[in-house]
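Colleagues,

For the teaching module next term, I've prepared a clean inverse folding example: a structure given as tokens, and then the sequence designed for it. I'd like students to try predicting residues themselves before seeing the answer, so please don't circulate the second half yet.
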């Protein structure tokens, strides 16, 4: 692989992979609709099964939200790579004359876009169902920033592990088994930071978890950049 390839070509390859996924989804709407329906079902189940007072709801609301995001995100990651494998597109991508890490970043960007679209729809619905919670704080820059950081960490690890799990016959089961133990720090930090924001706690309590999210995101994006080539070779 030519290491002297201009950086503009690298970014063009990343954007081409991401745009391919987004354009395919705009035509089929298969992946996004499945993620959205699943996320809304999870929220409805929690809403009608948890008969809680206002204080209890404020304590669990962040956990409910991130459980919803995690389950919907896992479904999206699994389907995103499975479609590539089943249609033979993955082999074509790997044969393309570009650095394979560009494929990873392109897939990660498209997966992040799908996850963020689901979150954009889920948050207003959640604010309507959970009226006893201080729902206006769901749309503050701090909460949205935590949501973005948590989603980036989730997708960064999930895209890498989905590329690994898709080679297995039991890929639908394999991805959650591989992903959830690794993603625990991101989920814990996201839940705790979101809870602190919703309960209007001191920013020092929020920033401790935000810093963990930033460190996690940087480490795993760098790790995925280094090992993606070996993962897809297997």
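(Answer key — instructors only)
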């Amino acid at each position: 692989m030519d290491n002297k390839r201009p950086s503009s070509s690298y970014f063009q390859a990343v954007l081409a992979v991401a745009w391919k996924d987004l354009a395919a989804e705009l035509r089929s709407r298969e992946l996004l609709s499945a993620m959205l329906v699943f996320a809304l079902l999870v929220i409805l189940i929690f809403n009608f099964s948890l008969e809680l007072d206002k204080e209890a709801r404020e304590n669990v609301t962040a956990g409910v939200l991130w459980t919803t995001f995690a389950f919907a995100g896992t479904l999206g990651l699994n389907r995103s790579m499975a479609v590539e494998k089943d249609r033979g597109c993955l082999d074509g991508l790997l044969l393309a004359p570009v650095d394979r890490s560009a494929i990873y970043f392109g897939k990660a960007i498209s997966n992040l876009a799908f996850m963020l679209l689901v979150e954009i729809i889920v948050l207003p619905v959640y604010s309507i169902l959970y009226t006893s919670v201080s729902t206006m704080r769901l749309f503050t820059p701090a909460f949205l920033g935590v949501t973005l950081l948590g989603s980036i960490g989730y997708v960064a690890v999930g895209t890498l592990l989905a590329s690994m799990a898709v080679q297995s016959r039991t890929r639908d089961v394999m991805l959650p088994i591989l992903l959830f133990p690794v993603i625990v720090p991101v989920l814990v930090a996201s839940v705790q930071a979101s809870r602190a924001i919703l309960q209007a706690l001191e920013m020092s309590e929020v920033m401790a978890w935000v810093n963990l999210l930033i460190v996690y995101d940087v480490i795993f994006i760098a790790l995925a950049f280094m090992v993606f080539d070996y993962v897809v070779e297997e």
